[in-house]
Structure formats: structure tokens, C-alpha cells
Amino acid sequence: MGSSEAIFTIKILGIDIPIYFSVIAQWIIMALIMITVPILTKNLKLVPTTGRQIFVETVVEKINSLVKGNMGEEYKGFAPFFGTLIVYLLFMNLFGLTGFRPPTADYSVALGLAIISFVIIQVNAIVHSGILGYFKGYAKPFWFMIPLNIIERLVVPVSLSLRLFGNITAAVIMMELLYEGLEFLSHVLHFKIPVFATFIPIPFHIYFDLFDGTIQMFIFVMLTMIFIKTTSEH
Amino acid sequence: MEINLWTVVITIFNVVILYIFLKKKLFIPVTTFMENRTNTIENNIKSSINKKKEAEELKKEYENKLKELNEQGKRIVEEYKNKALNIHDEIIAQAKKEADFIRQKAREDAELEMERAQDEIKKQIVSLALLVAAKAIERELDEEKHHALIKEFINRVGA
């Protein structure tokens, strides 16, 4: 992890809380979302005429139908949660486009997100089948599968967070290598301006930031959906 | 790759806040808004279908009524036509009768007149004949007696 120095610390109740860049980036993204959303949802009309309203309705409708289509009608209450994950992860993964390090390239952030998924998976399973049914679920289909089942459940957040972190970090490293290589090339060829670094990285940004970021967001959300559904039905 | 516990905690905290915010400000209002719109449109469609049905029923009813009225009108016209024809026939028949009566009367009158004229002529002829006879025989005739005689003669001739 390259930039792992705390930028500053906040003292709350006598505890020093170190704030890293990945947290500041999250706050920037949150501020952006919280400022944009009220503007987007301002005075909705029965017949949508503005592109703003059509955009908002399309996004919400797509998220609702994604949740309903993948999990079923009874899970539609999860739509806001998955919508939040989709929007937040998308912004965080695409944060690399600003030139800064995306927050999800910090394993702590990825782990935090995966822990939320893990908690929701387990809580939903308990709510769905009751405390007893939940613990009985570990002994299925045979009692001697208990250790395996426990590992299976505990491994979910680990695999979720490592997958997200690994992919985004790999993309960041690839882009850094590319920029350094192009700069080195400019330097070797005695160009005063790093001309290679102006246009060549664009397709790589499209692949590593846009494509990879979107795909990783989608995989994270889809896996969480599948785990919530399968774990509750054990 | 060290894990900063505080970053993990803050991330979870951030997601929870963002979840609450987006749920309150984006998902619930927009979803309920769209559901309301769906309901409104469905209701509108349903009510318009009902109204269409109603209108069609009314149209059928009015068409039937119109047909009935048309027929009634035709019937009334026919009735009056028949009545008028009857009256027309009656009037003609009466007129004919009257004409016949008048003609009959006229004929009778004419006959009567002719008889009377004939009588007059007979009378005249009788007196003329008497006069002629008197002149011829140059003497008085027994007027009464001969009068009857001549009359009888004339009658026989006339018959």
C-alpha cells in the first residue's frame, strides 16, 4: 500500500482517529452524491419532461428491477441498500479517473464494505429462518459439515473484499506503471513535454478504470445478492 | 497491506449514512412516485374503458330509441295517410251521392215539368180542336161532353 500515511487525526472522546486519504475521498464522494441527489429529485412531474427526471427514474427503476429480477419480489425492500452499494461503489471505483487513488484500492475500505455485506447476509438469514433455523443451517446437509459451513460463511467477506481490492489495486498499479513508462520514454527521447502521456493512456483508462471499476462494482453487488438469497434459504 | 481499523469503521459508518440518505431522498420518494403514477395511469385506463363501454351502451340505446321513433313516425304518417284516404273516399262517395241525388231530382223535376207541359199542350190542343171543330161545324158544341171526348182521343194518340 503506497500512500498509507494518515493525513491528519481527529480526536473524539480522547481517542485519536487517523484519517487516511481513502476516507477523505469517500467524504468527497458522499458530499457529491448528497448534493446531486436532491437536485435530481426536485419536483418530479407526472409526465416526465426533463432529462433529469428521466435519468433519475431510469436509475431507480433499473436498480429496483435488478433486485426484483435477481432475488424475487419479496426482496424488493433491499433495493435501496443495493442502490447505495451500486452508486457508492461506482463512484469509488471510478474515482481513479480524477487522477487520485480510488478509495477501494485501500483494503480497509474494501473490507468495510464486505463486512456490511457479511452482516446483512447473516442477519437476513436469521430473520428469514429464525435463530434456531439459522444455526441448524450450519449442520446441513450432514452434521460433520459444520466446520466446512462455518468456513464457507466466514470466507465470503474475505473473498468479496480481496476481489474488489485486488482488482482495483491492480488497475491502479497498471496505470501507474504505464504513466511512469511513458514518462521514461519521453525522458529518453529528450522531449521537454511528456507527449506520450497525453493520449496513449486514454484507452487504458477506459479499460482499467471505467470497465474494470464498473465490472467490479457489478460483481460485488451480484455476489452479495446471491449470498443473501442462498444463505437465507439454507 | 495493513488494515486500518478506523478506516474500516468509518467506511461502514459512511455506507450506513449514505444508505439512510439515499433511501430517504432517492429510492423511497422516486419509487413511490413511480408507483403512484402507475396506479394513476392504470386507474385512468380502467375508467376510460368503463366510460367507453358506457358510451357504447348509451349509443346502442339511443340508436334503438331512434329506430323506434323512426318506426313510430312512419306508423303515424301511414295512419294519417290511411285516415286521409278514407276521408277522401268518403267525401268522394258523398259527393257522388249528392250529385246522383241532384241529378235524380233534376230528372224528376224535368219529367214533372214535361208532364205538366204535356197536360198544358193537351189542354190547349183540346180547346184548339174544339175551337176548330166549332168553327168547322159553325155551331155550338156541347162543350162539356166533347171536351171529354177529345181528351180521350188525344190520350189515345199520345199513348
Automatic annotation (TrEMBL), chain A:
InterPro entries: ATP_syn_F0_a_bact/chloroplast (IPR045082), ATP_synth_F0_asu (IPR000568), ATP_synth_F0_asu_AS (IPR023011), F0_ATP_A_sf (IPR035908). PROSITE patterns: ATPASE_A (PS00449). CDD domains: ATP-synt_Fo_a_6. GO terms for biological process: proton motive force-driven plasma membrane ATP synthesis. It comes from the Bacteria. One of its GO terms (molecular function) is proton-transporting ATP synthase activity, rotational mechanism. It is a multi-pass membrane protein. NCBIfam families: ATP_synt_6_or_A, PRK05815.3-2. Belongs to the ATPase A chain family. This is ATP synthase subunit a.
Automatic annotation (TrEMBL), chain B:
It comes from the Bacteria. It holds the Pfam family ATP-synt_B. One of its GO terms (cellular component) is endomembrane system. GO terms for molecular function: hydrolase activity; proton-transporting ATP synthase activity, rotational mechanism; proton-transporting ATPase activity, rotational mechanism. It is a single-pass membrane protein. CDD domains: ATP-synt_Fo_b. Keywords: ATP synthesis, Cell membrane, CF(0), Coiled coil, Hydrogen ion transport, Hydrolase, Ion transport, Membrane, Transmembrane, Transmembrane helix, Transport. It is found in: Cell membrane; Endomembrane system. The chain crosses the membrane at residues 6-22. Residues 45-83 form a coiled coil. The keyword Protein biosynthesis does not apply. NCBIfam families: ATP_synt_b, PRK13461.1. F(1)F(0) ATP synthase produces ATP from ADP in the presence of a proton or sodium gradient. F-type ATPases consist of two structural domains, F(1) containing the extramembraneous catalytic core and F(0) containing the membrane proton channel, linked together by a central stalk and a peripheral stalk. During catalysis, ATP synthesis in the catalytic domain of F(1) is coupled via a rotary mechanism of the central stalk subunits to proton translocation. Component of the F(0) channel, it forms part of the peripheral stalk, linking F(1) to F(0). Belongs to the ATPase B chain family. F-type ATPases have 2 components, F(1) - the catalytic core - and F(0) - the membrane proton channel. F(1) has five subunits: alpha(3), beta(3), gamma(1), delta(1), epsilon(1). F(0) has three main subunits: a(1), b(2) and c(10-14). The alpha and beta chains form an alternating ring which encloses part of the gamma chain. F(1) is attached to F(0) by a central stalk formed by the gamma and epsilon chains, while a peripheral stalk is formed by the delta and b chains. This is ATP synthase subunit b. The gene is atpF.
